[in-house]
Design a protein that fits this description.
By secondary structure, this protein is mainly alpha-helical. The protein has helices at about 5-15, 20-35, 50-55, 65-85, 95-100. It is globular, with a radius of gyration of 14 Å.
Length: about 110
């Protein structure tokens, strides 16, 4: 398990890179998985990681599990690596933007 100081830093960093609200992410995951004929059951929409990020957004810090912490590290690393390698995607780079949005990061959302 992560110590309290490290967990505080991870919590802050996770919420910095995951800039979508739980409602925005839930809606995005449903839209992303929908097609012309079907729409997924809401709790099954999106990737497993996207669903896990959504679950973390709905938790208090004291309720985090080891699996939650592992996913938080993965998401922070992935979003940060994407930003470092190529910068934030532009509006016309929809595939890359959509991949990041599946992790809860909308690069076109203005900072708060």
């Amino acid at each position: 398990m992560t110590d309290a100081l490290e967990l505080d830093a991870l919590w802050d960093e996770f919420h910095r890179v995951v800039n979508m609200t739980s409602q925005e992410l839930a809606a995005w995951l449903r839209v992303r998985d929908a097609d012309e004929e079907t729409e997924p059951v809401p709790e099954r929409a999106g990737t497993p990681t996207g669903r896990h990020v959504l679950a973390i957004l709905q938790k208090r810090r004291t309720d985090l599990t080891d699996a939650d912490i592992r996913v938080m590290y993965e998401v922070v690393d992935e979003v940060t690596a994407q930003q470092d390698e190529e910068g934030e995607p532009e509006a016309e780079d929809t595939d890359r933007r959509h991949r990041l949005m599946t992790l809860g990061h909308d690069p076109l959302k203005p900072p708060q």
